[in-house]
Amino acid sequence: MTAKKKTSQKTTEGDNAPGLDFESTLAELESLVQKMEAGELSLEASLEAFERGVKLTRACQATLKQAELRIQTLSAQNQDIVPTEESSNE
């Protein structure tokens, strides 16, 4: 049995998805979409699910944006420490 690696990244989009990590937020969003597409919900429940889905989507987007910024920062830092040919020949 393989364990799925969990990230410690929590969504921080206000009260949109409090305490949920990215994977949990995305799983909940996918579940809502499946229920709505299957027609399992009443009109009122569909509207509530849609509202929740918008909040979850925003939370996922915010988390992805934070990850992208971290990658850009790390990439920029890495460029500063990569030796050039001149310095490696000395």
What's the short story on this structure?
The protein has a domain at 22-80: Orthogonal Bundle (Helix Hairpins). It starts with 21 loop residues before the first helix and ends with a helix.
Describe the protein.
This protein is mainly α and 90 residues long. It has a domain at 22-80: Helix Hairpins, CATH 1.10.287. 68% of the residues lie in helices and 0% in strands. The protein has 3 helices and no strands. It has helices spanning 22-38, 43-81, 85-89. The longest helix is centred in the last third of the chain and has 39 residues, at 43-81. It is rod-shaped.
Name a few traits of the molecule.
mainly alpha; 68% helix; disordered N terminus
CATH superfamily of the domain at 22-80: Exonuclease VII, small subunit
By CATH, the architecture of the domain at 22-80 is named Orthogonal Bundle
Runs in which pLDDT lies below 50 for 5 or more consecutive residues are 1-9, 11-16
Shape estimate: rod-shaped
Query: The CATH topology of the domain at 22-80, please?
Result: Helix Hairpins
The profile of the biggest β sheet is: none
The radius of gyration computed from the alpha-carbon positions, rounded to a whole number of angstroms, is: 20 Å
| Tally of contiguous helical segments | 3
The portion of residues forming beta strands comes to under 5%
